[in-house]
Amino acid sequence: MSKNLTTRNEDYSKWYNELVVKADLAENSGVRGCMVIKPYGYAIWEKMQAELDRMFKETGHSNAYFPLFVPKSMFEAEEKNAEGFAKECAIVTHYRLKNDPDKPGKLMVDPNAKLEEELIVRPTSEAIIWSTYKNWVQSYRDLPLLINQWANVVRWEMRTRLFLRTAEFLWQEGHTAHATKMEAIEESEKMMNVYAEFVENFMAIPVIKGLKTETERFAGAEETYCIEALMQDGKALQAGTSHFLGQNFAKAFDVKFTNPEGKLEHVWGTSWGVSTRLMGALVMTHSDDQGLVLPPNLAPIQIVIVPIYKTDEEFAAVSKAAQDLVVQFKKIRLSVKFDDRTTQKPGFKFAEWELKGVPVRIAVGPKDIENGTFEVARRDTLTKEVVVKDSIVNHVNDLLEQIQKEMFEKALQYRNTHVTQVNSFDEFKEVLENTGGFVSAHWDGTAATEEKIKDLTKATIRCIPLDQQSEEGVCVFSGAKSSGRVLFAKAY
Questions:
Q1: Which of 7, 384, 395, 471 has its CA 20 to 30 A from that of 217?
Q2: Which helix or strand (DSSP H or E) is residue 415 part of?
Q3: pLDDT tens per residue across span 132-160
């Protein structure tokens, strides 16, 4: 199998796009800006979804589903949110087509089928959900309300890229209502930590937890908590966000409750979400010029067994040994595939599974059966070893844990060596252009300086790190006083 992948050094963007398509994760569809997620890509998303869903339920959340369409007047109720998403909204204005009398076989919008009120195709669901919560909350006994939904949303992006930015994408969005401000803040922080735990332990991607600046904050939020990751090309990627909404949506939709003293109060809200953008992060953090490199905890196929043979007799013997292995691996709940296709040679299969990022490959041939051994290859390091038959199952089980751990450590080492402190704007620009990664710099706290730096360098403030120590200094751009550093980076 010829991969013919553009290398990362040659053209990182082209390498990414080619890899997503050639590894059978996704492809562009017949709808501009939308993608088809193929079975192999969707299998990875399903594993992400299953793990996150388990974590959400363990923290007391329940799943529900809300409509795709939001009446325009409802969408406009919370002004900041409506204004923040206005440029990305798709709008339904009519509900019927009819035959075009001037063009047989063609359809046209029926002018008599105009909607009384236009409908927004949800770019996010705060409006429709908070309008519903008004009916669900009357007393403090109804709180907290901890709801999540798995859904699709539409944001009419002009420049799209598979997984990273598409007009329609899949995600989950949590929306919670609380009796007190402190409870809502605790919820926002808790869900940021859930995301960080998932991304680090399952995706093997280290993240930095922080707060967004007012400019980068979610439209309609009082505070946005985030986790930021670093890709191999030195650009940052926002991996998840959790928003403390204050009482903004409760006031916009009149969601009130009677407290224990019998007084009416507005509830306090949060919302939080991650999307199929995480698929892009997975590809860009770990993969190499040979193809995908998947962490074992998310790989749809953790082990692939490839038979080596010349005759039908050899194939029968090798297949028996392979099938015995499959049974043993499945007993310890490892996902394994025996690639017994007779239409492709072993070299083709090796290249295909390498491209698809399967963590461990086992080759078994007549000599292996004779010697009581198997050849075991790691995808992440492209190294091989010979393992005796009696210890193969335990060895591979341990190896998968080792691969998961070492993939995280490799990504962490890259991240840690790409966080650079600077004290002048010249240093700032030099690091951005030549080293990449996160630039730790003093900022004067103004939106004007933030915007000017973005205009000049294309770098944005990714976050104000939560573990940041206060440090007196001066802004790298304006020279004004600063009480601490923030992290800048070019980003996806």
A1: 471
A2: helix 392-416
A3: 999 999 999 999 999 999 999 999 988 89
Q: Can you list the alpha helix ranges (DSSP code H) found in 223-298?
A: 248-252, 277-286
Q: Which residues contact 310 (CB under 8 A, 6 or more apart)?
A: none
The DSSP element (H or E) to which 465 belongs, if any, is: strand 460-465
3 pLDDT higher than 80: no
Residue 307 CB-density burial (10 A; 0-12 exposed, 13-18 middle, 19+ buried): buried
Question: Which whole-number Å values give the CA distances from 294 to 205, 234, 362, 416, in the listed order?
Answer: 11, 20, 16, 21
Q: How far is CA 266 from the centre of its chain?
A: 33
Based on the number of CB atoms within 10 Å of its own CB, is 426 exposed (0-12), middle (13-18) or buried (19 or more)?
exposed
Cβ-based neighbour number of residue 300 at 10 Å:
19
pLDDT single digits (tens) 327-355: 999 999 999 999 999 999 999 999 999 99
Widest pairwise Cα distance in the chain? 84
User: In this structure, is the dihedral angle defined by the CA atoms of residues 94, 95, 101 and 102, taken in order, positive or negative?
Assistant: positive
Tell me the residue type at 314.
E
